[in-house]
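PROTEIN DESIGN WORKSHEET
SECTION A - STRUCTURE
LENGTH: 114
TOKENS:
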């Protein structure tokens, strides 16, 4: 008789988001942290984004935000950002963190735990 393995703990991830302004990025970042959906958010002003939208090439200045959370929180983060964001199709993408400081990654997991 084989034992069922214990589920793996959720992995730490980084979530990239873009915003039209620093005010919007800060407001949504604060909400995500206050609701314990993410441990922290770095807001990086003035990134240049080049993309197609409305059948035209766009060249815009945006604000990049990088949040740290866990994989089990990603769906909730995506839904919360979509509910607060000014864009019709906001960028919210989760990327795996392959490694790093165990102390920091442990803090991330603890900061978003229920």
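SECTION B - SEQUENCE
RESIDUE ASSIGNMENT:
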């Amino acid at each position: 008789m084989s034992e069922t393995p214990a589920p793996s703990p959720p992995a730490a991830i980084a979530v990239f988001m873009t915003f039209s302004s620093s005010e919007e990025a800060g407001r949504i970042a604060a909400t995500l942290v206050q609701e314990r959906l993410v441990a922290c958010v770095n807001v990086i002003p003035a990134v240049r984004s080049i993309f197609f939208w409305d059948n035209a090439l766009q060249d815009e200045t945006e604000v990049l935000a990088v949040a740290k959370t866990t994989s089990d929180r990603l769906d909730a983060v995506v839904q919360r950002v979509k509910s607060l964001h000014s864009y019709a199709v906001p960028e919210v993408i989760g990327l795996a963190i392959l490694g790093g400081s165990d102390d920091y990654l442990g803090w991330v997991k603890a900061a978003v735990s229920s």
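SECTION C - NOTES
The helical segments are 22-34, 74-84, 102-111.
Residues 12-111 form a domain with the Alpha-Beta Plaits fold (CATH 3.30.70.120).
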